[in-house]
Structures are given as structure tokens and as C-alpha cells.
User: Fold this.
Amino acid sequence: MEFGLSDEQVMLQDALARFLSGTGGLERTRAFAAGKDRRAPDVLRGLAELGVTGLIIPEVHGGVGLSLLDAALAAEQLGRFVAPAPFAGTAVMAPLALLKAGDAGQQAAWLPKLASGATVAGVALSEVTGARDGAGVEARDGRLHGRAQFVVDYEADLFVVADRARGLHLVAADAPGLTRTDFRTIDATRPTGELVFDGVAAEPLKAGDGPAAVRAMIDAGRVMLAADTLGAAQDMLDQAVAYAKGRVQFGRAIATFQAVKHMCAEMAASLEPCRSLVWYAGHALDHLPEEAPVMACHAKAHLSEVGTFVARTSTEVHGGMGFTDLVGLHYWFKRIGYNRQVLGGPQAVRAEAAALQGLAA
Amino acid sequence: MEFGLSDEQVMLQDALARFLSGTGGLERTRAFAAGKDRRAPDVLRGLAELGVTGLIIPEVHGGVGLSLLDAALAAEQLGRFVAPAPFAGTAVMAPLALLKAGDAGQQAAWLPKLASGATVAGVALSEVTGARDGAGVEARDGRLHGRAQFVVDYEADLFVVADRARGLHLVAADAPGLTRTDFRTIDATRPTGELVFDGVAAEPLKAGDGPAAVRAMIDAGRVMLAADTLGAAQDMLDQAVAYAKGRVQFGRAIATFQAVKHMCAEMAASLEPCRSLVWYAGHALDHLPEEAPVMACHAKAHLSEVGTFVARTSTEVHGGMGFTDLVGLHYWFKRIGYNRQVLGGPQAVRAEAAALQGLAA
Amino acid sequence: MDLSYSAEYEAFRAEVRGFLEANRSQAPGHGGNGLTWQKLLIENGYAARTIPREYGGYGGEPDILKSRIIAEEFARAQLSPGLGGQGISMLVPTLLEVGSEEQKRQFIAPTLRGEMLWCQGYSEPNAGSDLAALATKGVLEGDEWVINGQKIWTSTAHLAHWIFCLVRTEPDAPKHEGISFLLFDMKTPGIEIRPLVDMTGAANFNEVFFTDVRVPAHQIVGRRGEGWKVANAILRHERGSLADPNVMQSRLNALIDLMKAETLDGSRVIDNPIYRDRLMAIQGRVQALRCNDLRLLSAAVNRQSAPLAGMVVKLQGTELRHELEGFAIDVMGELGLLYGDTPRLRGGGSWQRDYMYFLGLIIGGGTSQIQKNIIAERGLDMPREPKLAKA
Amino acid sequence: MDLSYSAEYEAFRAEVRGFLEANRSQAPGHGGNGLTWQKLLIENGYAARTIPREYGGYGGEPDILKSRIIAEEFARAQLSPGLGGQGISMLVPTLLEVGSEEQKRQFIAPTLRGEMLWCQGYSEPNAGSDLAALATKGVLEGDEWVINGQKIWTSTAHLAHWIFCLVRTEPDAPKHEGISFLLFDMKTPGIEIRPLVDMTGAANFNEVFFTDVRVPAHQIVGRRGEGWKVANAILRHERGSLADPNVMQSRLNALIDLMKAETLDGSRVIDNPIYRDRLMAIQGRVQALRCNDLRLLSAAVNRQSAPLAGMVVKLQGTELRHELEGFAIDVMGELGLLYGDTPRLRGGGSWQRDYMYFLGLIIGGGTSQIQKNIIAERGLDMPREPKLAKA
Assistant:
């Protein structure tokens, strides 16, 4: 019985934190956000060197063969440093698609490239978690038609696309008939956009159970976003505490004011149990298949709510500075905001949790 | 343009406050709660002498002919002093029923008695605002069948009963075939219970538009409960501030702790706009018929939420004392809890507000 | 309780409507020019209404209801209510109250006409909530103040011709009594302006740096050391205006339209009971603040007092706007993340912008923590925090 | 991460189950007697497990997992886990840590057997959050303490044989150092007990008044003036136990059953999306606290540290229980108001009772404000409030 991180897991987190702070931390994120590049190759390369891109890919395919909990721990660090890097799609959901629904040839063709970071894969299944704007993709006669919005890790070479029947397909980024429309969102660290399929020839993943693979991808994707929020929110709390200790008003550090202390205590009190929830949900993905979908919903919804509270409260503790670009706190605020909506907002995800338990009418 | 209380209205409030504190205030309520009496005749008599029982009854019928806003101001004082007295039913909803749906004979027979307090009328229409436990009343061949729960001002001589078709009926408390079952609730100040009708002969109110009368009764009843909560919550805030100024811990009045001050400030900030909301909703009942139903819903729902917050927060400011019977704060807490559920809880009332605006599917 | 307007006011309303109909073509955005429009409004008493004629105003009697009617009718006609800005809203009332006759004559008229734009130099990096801690120094050398220091949150500094500024001129006086209120030209040598980008992505504010900025000694309002008093009377006016419940009402209406238009899995969001419940909860709170506003208006008209009702407006209003805008983002889901120049953007990105901007307003102009202190101490008469022992 | 139990522990679990099956008929409520049952549990190591044999315990090694397994299996079998109360949960550990050999021999065994019931005398009317302010005085006269003062929040005072009590014995020492920890018989002359009725309508607590109560001098635990230290080590244990997430889980299950059973206008409440959304939000928070509890258990087993995870349990857990119970009242609507001996009551009135009782717990054992101070200062290393100037 051990519910905690192994030494190896702590080392993974530390290594990732060292790399991400060494690679520039907030300043790298700022430069990425300000520039015209839609990828940060240095960050991606570093992650590949650390094995993060191949974290859950089996060693036989060039990965390191770790668990989805390890992936969640990596996501937490990426959120903590608001890293401008693809992850939930290319390193988690796309490999899961290949592992659960791809045939041996597809796995051999793509998994090593994903593991090495040579290929970045985007994942288009937002419509399965809730279609907006009438979007959705249909497969007819081996070709895809329709529209997919809010692709996870959209700046990609390859797309894993879920159709309305929860079948999965591979589409090259330069496939004829595929039109890409870049979106701008509040979160400059994770580019996204829309794909329009006009009879695009696609390669189906049909070795496994498509709907089951889609379910696993959604569950894992939600836990990754929750973990990302955990890391970002923890950092916002840490920044708030540090700022409050240093900021003097009325002749004393504002950290000595009970109102400020209580704001920080409330953030800590709501956030600390979230860490265990994310661990459990991450563990469940691999080991507790019956619990995994519901726990992924709860992790996603609860971290969205707590994340929103922490994002707002940390900004308040920073006073006017929190509102400016000078301290850059808004990168964390917006990252948490993005994680809230993608793959299902809190209401939608709670409704799904109820349905999964047979509680919905 | 004047949105405020007239001198007469302030005098009415003052007179009522003087009477209710003079009649014993909390101690009178305690005695009532501890005793076996289900009525407090001294309180009722005093209210009658002040004209409160006949507040909205026209002078021609022995009342004082004031407005429903005046009635809301009276309800506020009753809540403030957690007075063990019938009001929303006997002094507001029942007279409205007679005025809007009764014929001249019925009005002449009952309104003077209600005005003088000689007759107390209970109102049975909970099932119209939301039927629990399969309750509900049907009228067949001039007789009533079924069950009505949570009668407002249940300790009564006469009942005004709404059937499922929103027809209204008068039933004497001792009518053959009528069985009464007393309930005990958290709120000892306002006895309630259930009526079972086994083919009870009833006198229909059929001079006016029954459903419209029921609508007016519900709107007014909701505003009265909201006003009662306003008064009770304001008093809980006042008690919290007074307690905090007097209570010394760690060598200083707890009112000097920022956490305690902010709890009181948050109560005041959420409660103060409620006063204007109740005024507006009360005014709308008489003067803005198109707005009245929605505003009554908002007053009821919003005061329920703010009331719950204030009830809990004031108790916390009182520390352990707030939890005891020694200071008796729980009478206010429970009064607010009662007002929250009766005539529709916040969710139900908000759903009705949406439907009234044509927003529901 | 009487929510109707008397015949006099109804007549006034008709007059305003008549004016707007007749002059629509002269309004900015409808073919007219902003400065000409301002002149026309002042001549007719729809701008600078209560400012004396000798200083360039209309010279009318103060009448809260007429002011409200003017605001309502201009909003209804969707025509500009004339020039705003901190010069007109803050400096002019200040000068009228405490300026010298010469200052009134020199500054008020060009400010009203829009020829002289102002910015405000109050906040500093280390003097936010604690404004009395401000450190920008002014030293009298001969007949000039020599000013060094830094201001922050200076909106429109890059557009302003002049600044009204708090400067510490009496370093040895108690901290509230060592500040003076100075006016000076933004073209004076030694002033550097840096735009301050905020979380909305816009530079709504600036930092302003002063290095040996020389200002004629007579450009002081009030006496030396009275700057705190001069500034404070006006600051209070600013707080309520950040959370106008009528603007909130129109945002709520826009939100309802949004919920009717947006779909999730093919169903309108407005048809989802959970979202509808949240909408109604917000509507109830908006109504409470609208009624509170009506009470404040009435109290002002009838010279009654409702101090607590006024104190809670900023705290409650900015919080509610932040929540309302955030709820709209939830309504749109992923589409609510879109921001800036991007396809599929809803409402010009206003929901995200205002969600962030109102978080800024929760903080700005006195944080929520400061507001709660004020409500507790001034509104509920709770004691101030005891003095600290010297460290 | 490994949530399974090793073979040793699975065997132990099987052993506990076997015991429970075999001995069910001896349990209270199933034909057995509470004191006999307690004796049987101690003999088998299911109660007083780690307490040395010479003091009447089982004498086993501390093993957190076995303790957890015992608790789980007794709960699953719905059989009494043996006697509880403040004597067993608080006094016995205190005596084991700091009691004299004589005190251990005199008090522990009869307490464990249930022959000696205790109450706790810590809080006073003016020493609640500020326990160090306690004023009950003990003066040594000859070889007796003479005690005068008042305690409050003394649960089971009317049933207890003895009390463990904090008394100020050194009036001239600094306030934390002037308190002693005394034990005495509740039949000692001069003790008056008044039941303290609370908002739930029950007398869950008492006030206890001392007038010249004479206590033998040797009935002190630790030395004079060490009472604060003696009491404090144990107090920490109490805080977490107020919000057991496993109890919370079973309340949540009961809530779901309630929502399936209750109807509004003929529809099951569980079929209303708004209520379902609130239910799921609560379930998510319950899950977070259950996972947090698992982490604390694991940290204790593996001697790791998770201080913040422990500090937040009381604040979060009591708050969540209060909200959960309050939500159940909303689910029932008017029926949720019923309380006491009344027709149509649901769940024996437990929802209303726990709604109120958990508000009491939010306050009791350190108010939420005190909890937040602790989290900020000890958990987040934020500075204490500066010292006040002497008034």
C-alpha cells in the first residue's frame, strides 16, 4: 500500500523542472507568445531528450514505457512553467490511439517518431466531448468530411481524428483536401485551430476497439489538463505567497495582514487535496479501468473550479501588479482558463460523470 | 421619483419594532417554542391593535388599506424579532384570495374577522409551487379530496385551499372530513402541518379569476418570506457586529481582527442591496403587474441565498456561542432556513423566473 | 415609493429627445466632429451642465434627475454623451472646489472644450492601496518645483497635454500631510512614458517617470501639504462609477442573446437547465444592484442618506461583472477561449476582455480587501486594527 | 503507487472478517454487552491494540494499515468497533506519553475496559480560540489543589466518572506556562454540571462549574506549568478526526439514495439536471478529500511527510459536510424542514441535525479563522501578525 510518488517519479519531476526553468521559464514563454513561431523547437527537443515525448510509449517503440500517472506528473510541470510545448495530444492521446486501435504496422510507423519528437501529432476529438458551432467529422468511403475545432496540439505533422461514430483516423497535416484555420485564444502557449475536411483520404485505425480507444484518450486527456492546472495553480499560489512576503504597504509586509493570509490559506486548502485527486485519477487510468472515466471527469471538473478560484485569488493578492504583463502572472491565469474549457467544461464533464454512474435520466 | 420609505412607513416599522421588543422579543419566542401552545394570542392581539392583521384589507372591511410594500415592511420586522405570529398567510395571502376571487358576501363575511385578528386563516397552496410526496388537492362536485402539506399559518380557524386547477376554496378548520396532522420543523416560531381532505365540503371563491388570484398570492407570499429573511438576516448581522465588538480573545476585541471584520463586511455587502430588491418587489406587487411575478421570484431566491450565507457567517462570528441555545441565535438561523424552502426553494423559483420570461425550453 | 417622474421631468426628457433627433447628424460617428458636438452639448446644457458660464460651462442648477435623464436618453439614442476623461470628471470638480480663481479661468474652459487633455498621477509602484506612502519628490528650487519619481496606472498619459499629480513636497511632515497637488505640462523635459501592457493584452495604462522635471511654483492646487485632502474628496466619486448597474443590465441582455445563439451538441445553451439556473442567479443579483442604484439615486435627489448602499457598489458590482463575463465564457466553452484577431470570435472578444478587465477593477481603485475594511469601519462602525508595536 | 495490500495484510483482513463472523452474536445490538465486547476486542487485538499489556491493552506493534483494516472491516460489518470517548482517544495516549508509572497503572486499564469514563475540561467561556487565556484557578493548599472556575463544551460531563482538566496554577508565569493538567473525580464536592443545549436541540455539551473543588496534589500529569504542552500534543490528533472522508462517502451514498427517492411534482429529484450538477460537484470534492486521506494514510505508513495535506482536512472536511447536508435539505424542499418527532420525517432528521452540527464543528476545535491562520503560518510559512503596541 503506497499512495505517493516513487523516487523515480520525484526525479522525473525535478529533471523536468530543471530543464524548463533552465530553458528560460517565463521569459521563454514570453518570447514564444510575442513571436510569430507556432512551435518552440528548443523546448520540444529538450522534452524529447528527457524522454517526455515518449513517456508512455513502450520501449520497443523507442519510448520509455512509463505510466499515465508519470505523464500526469510531467503535465503538472509543464503547467507549472507555462511551457510552450505540445504534450496532451502528441505525447499522450495520440500514442494511446495508436496503442489501443492501431495495427502493428501503424504502431511501428508512428510511435518511434512520436517518441523522438520527430513527429508531432495533434488530436481532433473535441466534437466527441461536445460539438460547438455544428462542427463534427464524418467518415464515408474512407474519406473524411466535416470540421473539427480546437485540435489539441494543433501545430502538428499528423492528426488523429475521431469521427462522429468514434472511429479513429490518421491524417497527414499536408493531406489534400485538408484546410487549416489557425485560432488565437487567450492562451498563447498552446496554439490551436480548426481543421476542415473536404473528402480527405484518411488512414483508419481499426485494429482495436475505436470507441474504447476514444474513451481512453478522453479520460487521459482530461487528467493531463487537470494535472496541468494543478501545476499552474500551485505556482500561482507560490507566487502569491512570495509576493505577499515581499510587498510592503502600510509599513508592513502584506503577508502579515490576516485577509491576505487567509486568501493564501484558502488557496492552499482547496488546492492541496487536488494533488491527491490527480494522482488517483492518473493511477486509475492504467490500473482501475472501472473507476477511470468517472475519476477523470472529477479531476477535470474539480481542478477547473479550484484552478479558477486560485487564478483569480492569486491575481488579487498581487494587487495591480497581478493585472499587468510586468510579472506575467496572466500566462498562468490564461493557461488555467484554457484547461477549463478544452475537452469539456466543468458542467459538461459533471453531467458525463453522472451519466457514467447511471444517475442521469 | 422617490424610491424609499415614507415617514409613515418608517413609523409603521418603528411601532412594530417597539411592540415586538416590548412583548418580550427573544424571550417571548423562547417561551413559545418551549411551551405547548401553538398560538401566541398576546402577540396576535398586539399585531391586530397595530393594524398589522388588517394591513392590506380595505378600510371598508375594517382594515387599514395599506399596500403590499407596507406588508413587506411588517414582515421584515416580524423576521427581525423572530416573532411567533402568523402573517404571510392570514394577513396577506388569504385577504388577497378574498379580494381577488371572493364575492361581496365572502369578503364581507371574512375580511373584517381577518382584519381584527378574530379569525386566523391558513393558506394551503404549497402543491402549486411544487408538490412533494405526491400531495395535491382535487375539487370534485364541490368537495375536496387529497392532501395539502406545509400550510402557511397552519394554526388557523379557516383555510384557503388551492386545488390542482388553481381554483380556490374556503374550508373551516373544523369541517367534517378534514384531518389535520401537526408537523414539527426546525422553526418553532411558525407552526405548520398537513391537511387531508376526505370529501370535505368547501366554499369556492369564484367571483374572480382563480388562477390569477393564486398567482398574486404566491407572488405576495414570496415577497413576504423574502422580507422576513431580510429582517432576520439584518438582525443576525447586527448581532454579529455587536458580539464581535464585545468579545475579547488574544487580548483584543475580535472585531479588530481583519478576518472578522471582513466576514461582517461581506454580510453587509451582500445584504444591503437586498433591501432595495425587497422594496422594489413589494412595490411591484401593487404597481408593476408585468414585473411582479419575476421580481417576486428573484426576491425569494436571492434572499434565500444571501440569507443562508448571513445565517452561517453570523453564527461563525459568534464562535461556539453561536452554536448554543444560550444566545438563541439559532432562532434566526432556522427562520431563514424555513423561508428558504417554503413556497419554492431557490432552484425551483429561479426555474419559474426563467419560464415567466419565456426562457425555458 | 413613486417611480414615476413629474411632469417637469417628463417635459425635460421630451426636450432632450427632441434635441437628439434634431442633431443626430452632428454627433461623432454620424457625420459630426467630437469637439463641435461637445460645444453644442455645453450650449444646450447636456454637458458641463452645472459648471458656471464664466468657466465655460452651461451654468445650470444641479439636478440629479435631469442628469440621469440626459444620461439615459443619450444611451438610448446611442449617441456620444460628450467628452469624458479624468480632466473633466476629476480635475474640473477639484478646481471648482479648491482651485484659485486664476486656475479656474486658465484650465476649466479648455478642458471642457476638449482642447486640453489630462492624466492623473496618483498611484506609484509602492503606493497602491497605501496611497499615503507615495515617494515622488518635489523640491522647491527658487520658483520651481523639481520633481523626481515614478507614477503608475496613468491611463491616457500618452495622449494627455497636462497631468494633475500628487508629489511629496514636505518630507518631514506626517505622511498624509507632506503631499501637494501639482499641475504641469506633459511636454516638460524629463518626463518619460512607458505603456503598461496588462492581462487583456492592451496598454490601458502607463508608467510615467520623472527626472528633474521643473514645474513653476504657482502650479499648485491648494496649499503645500494639502494634496491628500484635495485628491481624496474626488477619489470617492470614482469608485461607484466602475460598476454601473445599467451597463450590467445591457451585458446581461447580451448574455441572454448569446445563450440563445450558442449551441452544444446541437442544443441551444439557453435550453440547458443548469446554465439557465446560473443565468437566473446572476439576473437576481443584477436586479438587486439595479434596485440599490435606484435607492441611491432617490436618496441623492431627496437628500436622504444611504451610506452603506453606496459603499457596497464597487465591491459587489465589479465582482458580479467579473462573474457574469466568466459565465459567458463557460456558455461558449472552447469558443469562449478565442481572443484577439481570430476566426469564429464572438462579440469581438468582449467577454474575455471584460472578464479580465473587471478582475482588474476588483483590484483597482481600492482592492476588495480595502473596500471591506471601509465597509466594516465606516459602514458598520467596527474598530480599526490596533496600532502595531514599533519593530 | 500501489493501492493493493500485501499478502500479510490481506491475511490479516481475512482474520478480522473471520473474527467478526464468528462473534457477531456477542456484539452490542446483536445480543451482546458493550463491556464484554470491549474485553473480547482487546483480547484479540482489535481494540487498545498498541497499548502495553501491563496497562490492560493488547500489546501489539503499531501498524497503521492494520488499524485501518480493523476500522474498515468493523464498519463494513456494521458492528461496534469497541468503546470510544475522550478517555480512550485522548487521555490514554496522553498518559502513555507523559503520565507517571503510577498514573498509567491506576487509570489506563479501567479506562480501556470502559469502567472509568472521562470528560475533558479545556475550553472556557473566555478561552475558546485563545485557549491560553484560560482562567480556571488552582491554588495549592497543603497537599490539595483548590479549584475555582468554569469550563464549557464539556461533552459527556454528566456521564463521566473523572475529568482531565486544564487549570491555571501559576498565575505569575507567562500565560502559556502557567497551566497544569489535573485529573479528578467528578463526584468531588463543588462540581456543578449544566447541560448546554445547542442549535440542534440536543445537549451535546455541558457547562461545568467548580467551586472550591479539592483535588489531591499528586493528581497532576507532568509538572506544574506544563499543562499546555501536555494537552497540545493530543489536540492535534482530534482535529482531523472530525471530518472522516469515509463517513462523508457514506453520507454521499445516502444522499444519492435520497435523490432517487424524493420527488418534486412527480419527478425524481435525481432526474433534475441542476440537482445532479450540484451532486456531482460535491462528489468531486468528496473524492478529492478521500484521495487526500489515502495520501495521509500512506505517508504515515511510509513515514513520509505531507504536512499541508493534514492541515487542511478539518477546514475542508467540516465545510464540505455542512454543504452536503445542506444540499440534502434543498433536495427535500419543505420536507427538509421537518425535525424532531414528527410525521413524514426523512432519515430520522439526520440531515438537518448534521447540517447544524457540522456548522458547530466548523467553529469548534479551532474556528475556520484559526485554521486558516495555521495553514498560512505553518503550512505556507507566512509571517505571524506583528505585535501590537500596548494599549
Notes: The mean pLDDT of chain C is 94. The CA atoms of residues 147 and 212 of chain C lie 5 Å apart.
